[in-house]
Design goal:
By secondary structure, the chain is an alpha/beta fold. It has helices at about 30-40, 65-80, 100-105, 120-125, 135-145, 165-175, 195-200, 210-225, 245-250, 280-285, 295-310, 315-340, 355-360, 360-370, and strands at about 1-10, 50-60, 80-90, 110-120, 150-160, 180-185, 230-235, 235-240, 255-260, 265, 270-275, 290-295, 315, 345, 350-355. The radius of gyration is 21 Å and the shape is globular. It binds iron/sulfur cluster.
Length: about 375
């Protein structure tokens, strides 16, 4: 199975917490789309299999216009074999989802929408520099459904400085009331080079107390599982049959091709990273990509990190086949203390986090990772 990720490096305005690569000058959007199609042509041979998922991320893919989508889909279909049942996801911001825009989207091959809601509290949305209100987000999701989209995901954030457990619960309640097929929820991360990080450093905001963060995570799991969502990845909840196929493929270390500035690709043995500069990308100024070959230890670490994040866990038979007896023993030896404390469990020869383990997943993952002098 192969996936294609397409990075759209434009946003109408920048949110103060975000470090994804994008800019607000949309004047070079046509040139970007041409450069994207040229990159797809150049890298056609890297995709030898049928494409099962296409994901438009960003940035804000809902800044693209119909002519851009037509050009991109024509190019993809001319270069790759895309399965007729492929999952084709588009990230969209609520304020872009006007009636005419949703109608246009409904005529495209896009069959899954990921709507960046982040919060249903208007004060929190202002704090995050989001451009929409909670009401606009609700209307946008309903409008998408009216136009036939039956696979909708919404993104939420928690651990925000102005957020309380009560306001988080209200956001969760309004999210489930919309009955989307999928909900992703991320704790705020203070990324360097963001305005949010500078506010924190200057003491103008305070990070959420760790116990409050953990209580919010517990509330997230309890609320969404009580409403029929399967907690299938640390940050992802889906109704049965509606898990993100594209992201699930990432977590299972499947190959994918990343197109666009700052996009990453994985071919099974190495990762490559496109230049994070729209100007250089459009002008074709090399180097356009850096590649990092993964050692066996690095691949093992990725298998641990991605496997433990999911309900499928780490496939221990797979670890033995791909990484040999030594790393298999190493994994089990380091897992022992967590198995004894019921923070990890084995199920069908897979190693998984228990509910209690989810709350300290970072330390468990780092303990299971390969460090040469820990042998
Ligand atoms: S969160 Fe989304 S809309 Fe906001 S700056 Fe980042 S990519 Fe753009």
């Amino acid at each position: 199975m192969a996936g294609i990720y397409i990075h759209i490096p434009f946003c109408k305005s920048r949110c103060c917490y975000c470090d994804f690569y994008s800019g607000t000058d949309e004047s070079r959007m046509d040139a970007f789309v041409e450069a994207l199609c040229a990159e797809a042509r150049t890298r056609q041979s890297e995709v030898g299999e049928t494409v099962m998922t296409v994901y438009f991320g960003g940035g804000t893919p809902s800044r693209l216009r119909q002519e851009h989508f037509d050009r991109i889909f024509d190019t993809l279909h001319s270069l790759f074999t895309i399965d007729p049942a492929a999952e084709i996801t588009l990230e969209a911001n609520p304020d872009d989802l006007s009636e005419s825009y949703v109608r246009m989207l409904s005529r495209l091959p896009v069959n899954r929408l990921s709507v960046g809601v982040q919060s249903f509290d208007d004060g929190e949305l202002v704090f995050l520099h989001r451009r929409h209100s909670s009401r606009q987000a609700e209307d946008a999701v309903k409008r998408c459904r009216e136009y036939g989209f039956d696979n909708i995901s919404i993104d939420l954030m928690y651990g925000l400085p102005p957020q309380t457990e009560a306001s988080w619960q209200r956001s969760l309640s309004r999210a489930v009331a919309l009955d989307p097929q999928h909900i992703s929820a991320y704790h705020l991360i203070y990324e360097e080079k963001t305005r949010m990080y500078r506010l924190l450093q200057a003491g103008k905001i305070a990070a959420t107390d760790e116990n409050v963060s953990l209580a919010m995570f517990a509330r997230l799991i309890d609320c969404l599982t009580a409403h029929g969502y399967v907690h299938y990845e640390i940050s992802a909840f889906g109704k049965e049959g509606c898990f993100s196929r594209h992201n699930s493929a990432y977590w299972k270390n499947t190959k994918y091709l990343g197109l666009g500035p700052s996009a990453h690709s994985f071919d099974g043995n190495s990762r490559s990273f496109n230049v994070a500069s729209l100007t250089r990308y459009i002008d074709g100024r090399p180097p356009l990509r850096e590649t990092e070959h993964l050692s066996a230890g690095e691949k093992y670490n990725e298998a641990v990190l991605t496997g433990l994040r999911t309900v499928w866990g780490i496939d221990l038979a797979d670890i033995k086949v791909h990484f040999g007896d030594e790393l298999h023993r190493y994994c089990l030896r380091n897992a022992r203390k967590y198995l004894d404390r019921r923070l990890l469990e084995t199920d069908n020869n897979s190693l998984k986090l228990t509910r209690d383990g989810l709350f300290i997943s970072d330390s468990i993952m780092s303990d299971l990772m390969w460090v040469a002098d820990r042998r």
